[in-house]
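FIELD: query
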Amino acid sequence: MSLALTWLPHDDLDQGWLTTSQEDRRMTDQLPLVTTAPRSTTRVVLVDPAAVRISPLNPRVDTPHAPDAIARLADELKAVGQINDAHGETAADGIVEILAGSRRCAACLAAGLQLRVRLHPDLPRDEAIGIAYRDDREALRPSFWDLAGGWETLLGRRIVTSDSALARLVGVDKSTMSRGLSFRKAPEPILAAFADRREISLSQWIDLAPLIENDDTREALLTRAALIAGNGYAAPRVAAELKAAAAGKVAIPAIEVRNRHDRVIATIQPGHRGDLTVKFKPMAEAHPSYRLEYARLVHEKLVEVIKTFFDKDA
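FIELD: result
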């Protein structure tokens, strides 16, 4: 059995002899790629982090990084070095564009270190997008707003020609992508009601989008959004306010169901679409007769709620 060896000069890396398998492992232990292992033609370079830019293919191109998190990562890099490489390519103007590793780039800049980048020459666009959108064990997942912005860029610049093809490349279903693209085109007064639109989750937007698209509810949402804009409400509070406006209510508080000892045994939460959600308190340790009593009390309250909630003037 023959063993291939690769010599790394001491001037470059003080590592000595490495087997080919060891070198491959060093490469594949870097920021993981979704599709294939790094090509044999890739090379690792050290660059000034101030002289690179984040690739427009990277969904984190406009993502602000938390200063505290960058400071912690900078201290870690100064202490133990760069275990992983950023991934990038050289643009037409000769500048290195970072496909993956924007947070590490910011940390190296803060630490005064050069950034290790694995450069991929002549990288097909589908593979470049795969690198930019791969799951990163270290970085925070981009917000739904930033992801949708990335999709919008890829389609707007005709880097990818169809929603279906892009959905496959970035690993989401087409309906999620459609919601994201509509998110980026939402009325500005709606978005302005949120203190930070990057806090809006996919599930919150799935609830709000049909209400914005519906002619019967859009005006109510715009009116409520104008009233609460600038209040600094967190995303869940804003979403709840807008859904309440769509239901014609000032708010949709949960309705408590209490037992004879005045203890809350369940809640009934009306929804903006006329749905009602009943939540019982845990009853595993309750006597069977108490469970039946709780069910009776909830039933009575539910009938009362149904009679009154759908009266908009109630």
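FIELD: remark
The CA atoms of residues 182 and 209 lie 8 Å apart.
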